Structures are given as structure tokens and as C-alpha cells.
Amino acid sequence: MTNLIKKNWLIILVIIFAIGYVNRKNTEQNTILPMTGGGIVADSVVSDKMLIRREVAPSESTNRLVIQDTSLSLQVDNVESKIKEIESKTTEMGGFLINSNLSKPNGVGSGTISVRIPEGKRDEAMELFKVMAVKVVSENVSGTDVTDQYTDLQAQLEVLQKTKVKFEEILDKAYTVNDLMNVQQQLISLQQQINSVKGQQKYFEQSAKLSKITIYLSTDDLALPYAPTNEWRPAVVFKEAVRSLINNIRGLGNILIWVVVFSPLWIPAIFVIRFAKKKLAI
After folding, report:
1. Which end of the chain has the least Cβ crowding within 10 Å, N or C?
2. What's this model's pTM, rounded to 2 decimal places?
3. DSSP 8-state assignment for residue 132
4. Where exactly are the structural domains of the chain?
């Protein structure tokens, strides 16, 4: 058996990897993505709308409308309990949960939670979340000024409302059924546009009042996103080297398991190939 494997090791590897590749492709095709929570979908849909909006000249308004987005990367002792604690503190401060997830790849607990906090309590919330951590790995605060977009929407709304008033006056003077139907269709279309503009305005207003905070949590700081620096960190390099060694050992173990499991396939295949070679030699 040992000699058989030594002589035909290349054929064995080719067969194993071919079978593994086919199985992996089948698994990917049969995988169904989970549906996303309502909060995420709502934010994503509005974000898409924001991307296709037209650009406008900067306004001179002194009352700027700014949407704050904050992210924290925290090393904690227990990811699951901290996620629950963050959600609880968020509710106490008048905010709400957008989404959260928890996973334990390679035995390292990690998770993400996104919340919305009243803008006036954002600094207080940030300090509370930092206190929960063993180590604050990184912090990022960004603001998006949507004053110009909001002003543009207000101008669109005024035009639509004036146009609607004109069509209402025309409706009062319409006599034929065809005229009535045409004017009513225009009024319905205008009202839908007005509702859409008001919805976008409301989104901007609520987003400015409620800051979004995304917290990345892990028991291992290497699993957290952070801004890389040129500073040499021997401890980080050592951890990465150890993790790479463990992954390589696991990979070798996985290959051996595959070889054993699929032996009923590759052993007969080797005998067939050798038999065919002998026939050709004769």
C-alpha cells in the first residue's frame, strides 16, 4: 500500500483536488444567501438613491446638515456579552439597533454591531463603549455634509407643490371625462414625486439627528480592522506567524483526511491506469 502511494502520489493529488473542486463548486451553487435585516436594507436603499442624485453648487447656509458616521474597533474579553451590553446602553440613551452579528472562526470570538444614537449623546456613547473594551484598537469619525442635497430637495419640493396647485385649478375647470382623467393622472404622479422628495428629506433629517456607530469586537486584536502604520510590532508579527503555522498544519491534516476518505476512488483509478500502461507496453 505504501509503495503504491509513493509511486502514484501525483495522480492521487490530482484526483483529490479535482473531486474537491467539483464539490466546492456544487456547494457554492446551492448556497442561499440570508435575507438582510430591515434596518440594513432601509439604509442601503436610501444610500443608492443618494449616489444617483445630481450634483448641486455648494450653498451658503450657516445651518449645515451633517451626517456623522463613527466606527470603533475594540478588543474585549467576551464578544457576546459586550454586544448585549452595547444594545442595552443604546436603548437607554434613546437609540436603536441597526444590526449585529457574532461568529467564532478558528476559536476566536468576533462580532459587529451597528447602532444609531442621538447626535447629542454620541460622545457619551463613545466613552461608554470604550470603557467596555480591554483595548481600543482604532477609532474613526467621518461626517457627510448633505446641506446642499437637502436644499436642492427643498427647491424641487416647492416646484412640485406649485405645479400641483396649477393642475388642481385646471381640474376645477375640466368638463370632459378625458380631461378629468388626464389631469387626475398628472396629480397622482405629482403627489408620488412629492412624497418621494419628502421621504429623502426625512431620511437626511433623521440621519443627522441620529449618528450611526459601528463597533467591531473581537477577543483577538489581529481580527479587528485598523489603520496600518509603519511601526514595527514584534508581538503582532509573532502572532501572525503562529497563526500561519497552525493554519498550514491544519491544511496538511485536511489533505490527509481527503486522501483517506477518497481512497475507494483513487486506488481503483491507479490500478486501472497501471493496467492500461501495461497493455500499451505489450
Report:
1. C
2. 0.53
3. T
4. 63-146+206-232, 148-201, 233-282
Compute CA 89 distance to the chain's CA centroid, rounded to the nearest angstrom. 23
Those residues with Cβ within 8 angstroms of residue 202's Cβ, 6 or more apart along the chain or in another chain: none
Question: For the stretch 153-165, what's the b/e string if a residue is b when 16 or more beta carbons lie within 10 angstroms of its beta carbon?
Answer: beebbeebeeebe
Q: Read off the pLDDT of residues 156-200 as tens digits, 9 standing for 90 and up.
A: 999 999 999 988 888 888 788 888 888 889 889 999 999 999 999
Distances (CA, A) of 55 to 58, 78, 100, 199: 9, 45, 34, 19
User: pLDDT tens digits, residue range 46-82?
Assistant: 333 333 334 444 555 567 888 888 888 888 888 888 9
Q: Are 272 and 254 in contact (CB under 8 A)?
A: no
For 63-146+206-232, CATH gives 3.30.70
Alpha carbons 100 and 113: distance in angstroms, whole number: 4
CA gyration radius for the chain?
31
DSSP for 178-216 reads: HHHHHHHHHHHHHHHHHHHHHHHHHHHHHHHHEEEEEEE
* Cross-strand pairs, 115: 97, 213
